[in-house]
Amino acid sequence: MADLDKKEGFASELLNEESLDNIHHVNNPVLDVPAIEKKYLGKPTSYVKEGNKFIFTDGKARVEVKVFSDEIIRVRLAPQGSFLEDFSYAIKKDLDLHPLSFALEETGDAYLVKTNAVVCRIQKEDFLVVFENITGKVINADHKPMHWEENVDFGGYYVYCTKKAMAKEAFFGLGDKSANLNLRGRRFSNWNSDTYGFGFNQDPLYKTVPFYIGVTDGEAYGIFFDNTFKTYFDFASEREDRTSYWSEGGEMQYYYIHGPQMIEVVKHYHTLTGTHFMPPLWAIGYHQCRWSYYPEANVREVTSEFRKRQIPCDAIYLDIDYMDGYRCFTWNKRYFPDPKKMIADLAAEGFKTVVMIDPGIKVDEDYWVFKEGKENRYFCRRGDDYFMEGYVWPGRCQFPDYTNPDVREWWGTLYRGLVEDGVAGVWNDMNEPAVFGRGTFPGDVRHYYEGYRGSHRKAHNIYGMQMVRSTYDGLKKLQRNKRPFTITRAAYAGTQRYSSVWTGDNIATWEHLRIGVLQLQRLSVSGLSFCGTDIGGFTGEPDGELYTRWMQFGVFSPFMRVHSAGDTRDREPWSFGPEWEAICKKFIELRYQLLPYIYSTFWRQHKYREPILRPIALLEQHKAQNLLREEEFAFGHHILVSPVLHPGQQSKIVYLPEGSWYGYFSNVLYAGGQEHQIETPLDEMPIFVRAGSVIPTYPVMQYTGERNIDALRLNIYYSLGRQDSDVYIDHGDTFAYEQSVYSEKHFIVEGKKDSLTISQNQEGLYNERFDTYKIYFIGLPFAVNKIEVDGVVIQGSMDEDKLPYFAVEKEFRKLTIE
Question: Which one of 176, 203, 432, 610 is the catalytic residue?
Answer without folding.
Answer: 432
